[in-house]
């Protein structure tokens, strides 16, 4: 049997690696039992933990998707090869081929929770993160792209630009952006709302953008959830706990008051009132200024919860 060269597992083509000033740590959705370092091309910077990337993996450089779970700067002393278990052998770092998400799908708190779940339940971090993010979110459902606009000149130069411009609407747009202090991508105003408020079309906005007086950007935002129709909302009725429920709730509340980590298994047949105990326990947690997560094993339980 021929022997494989272990180096080939991490090698890539001899491409330009000097334009990679950052290294990211990737946890693969496929369930690799550890995370891997990859070079991040400067064209993809900046990137944050929680965004997904696509990278080559394995001897055949199969494309795999994974979550960025860490970012570090690569200085001149950082080698382009990564030391594995055998310190005598060093392997080339591969490059990220694509950044899938514009914004992180997992924030800092969820990332910490995922790391805890991975450690406590001995589960690969990539699988935990993949399970956290709904499939619809990964496909971009529930989101829409909107255009935003902000000034690309100093506020001090606005008056001079207003005097030089002839278009009335162009002047109004500059004054409006200056008054709202829309000076960068963070403070930019949504374009359609701006046009509706000023009663103008896209034409003056395009002209200002061509003159580099304003700048247009795009952001992905969540679509508004539909309002629940009248009569569809369920009326909450006061539920009186029976003796067994009360005993179980007192035990859980004692665990909550202890401020220590613990596991409580609630055993009961179908329709015995377990969900009501969960709700009461969550209310006790919320009253302490803390938060709680409800995990449902069956979609049909959503309505009653």
Radius of gyration computed on alpha carbons: 27 Å
Largest beta sheet: strand ordering: 2-1-4-3-7
Give me the number of helical elements.
9
Per DSSP E runs of 2 or more residues, the count of β-strands stands at: 10
Strand share of the residues? Answer: 15-25%
Question: How many domain modules?
Answer: 3
Q: Find the CATH superfamily of the largest domain.
A: PriA, 3(prime) DNA-binding domain
Describe what you observe in this structure.
There is one protein chain. With 305 residues, the protein is α+β, with helices and mostly antiparallel strands. It has three domains: 6-134, PriA, 3(prime) DNA-binding domain (GIY-YIG endonuclease), CATH 3.40.1440.60; 144-222; 243-301, no CATH class. Helix content is 29%, strand content 19%. It contains nine helices and ten strands. It has helices at 108-120, 125-132, 135-138, 158-164, 168-179, 191-198, 203-210, 243-257, 274-287, and strands at residues 22-28, 36-40, 52-57, 62-73, 81-83, 90-92, 98-99, 143-151, 189-190, 214-222. The protein has a five-stranded antiparallel β-sheet. Strands 9-8-10 form a three-stranded antiparallel β-sheet. A hairpin with a 7-residue loop joins strand 1 (22-28) and strand 2 (36-40). Helix 1 (108-120) packs across helix 2 and helix 4 (158-164) runs antiparallel to helix 5. 16% of the residues are buried. Mean pLDDT is 83; it is low at 1-14.
């Amino acid at each position: 049997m021929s022997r494989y060269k272990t180096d080939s597992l991490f090698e890539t083509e001899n491409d330009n690696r000097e334009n990679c000033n950052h290294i990211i740590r990737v946890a693969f959705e496929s369930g690799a039992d550890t995370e891997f370092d990859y070079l991040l091309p400067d064209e993809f910077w900046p990137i944050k933990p929680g965004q997904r990337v696509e990278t080559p993996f394995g001897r055949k450089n199969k494309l795999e998707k994974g979550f960025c779970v860490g970012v570090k700067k690569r200085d001149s002393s950082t080698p382009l090869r990564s030391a594995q278990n055998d310190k005598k052998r060093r392997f080339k770092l591969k490059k990220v081929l694509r950044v899938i998400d514009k914004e992180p799908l997992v924030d800092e708190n969820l990332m910490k929770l995922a790391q805890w779940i991975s450690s406590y339940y001995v589960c690969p971090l990539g699988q935990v993160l993949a399970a956290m993010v709904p499939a619809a979110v990964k496909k971009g459902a529930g989101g829409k792209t909107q255009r935003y606009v902000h000034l690309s000149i100093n506020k001090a130069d606005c008056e001079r630009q207003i005097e030089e411009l002839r278009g009335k609407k162009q002047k109004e747009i500059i004054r409006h952006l200056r008054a709202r202090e829309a000076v960068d991508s963070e403070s930019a105003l949504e374009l359609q709302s701006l046009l509706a408020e000023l009663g103008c079309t896209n034409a003056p906005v395009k002209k200002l953008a061509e003159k580099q007086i304003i700048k247009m950007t795009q952001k992905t935002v969540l679509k508004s959830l539909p309002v629940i129709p009248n009569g569809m909302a369920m009326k909450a009725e006061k539920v009186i706990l029976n003796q067994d429920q009360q005993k179980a709730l007192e035990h859980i509340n004692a665990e909550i008051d202890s401020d220590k980590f613990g596991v409580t298994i609630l055993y009961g047949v179908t329709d015995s009132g377990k969900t009501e105990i969960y709700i009461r326990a969550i209310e006790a947690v919320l009253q302490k200024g803390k938060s709680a997560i409800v995990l449902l094993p069956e979609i049909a339980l959503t309505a009653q919860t």
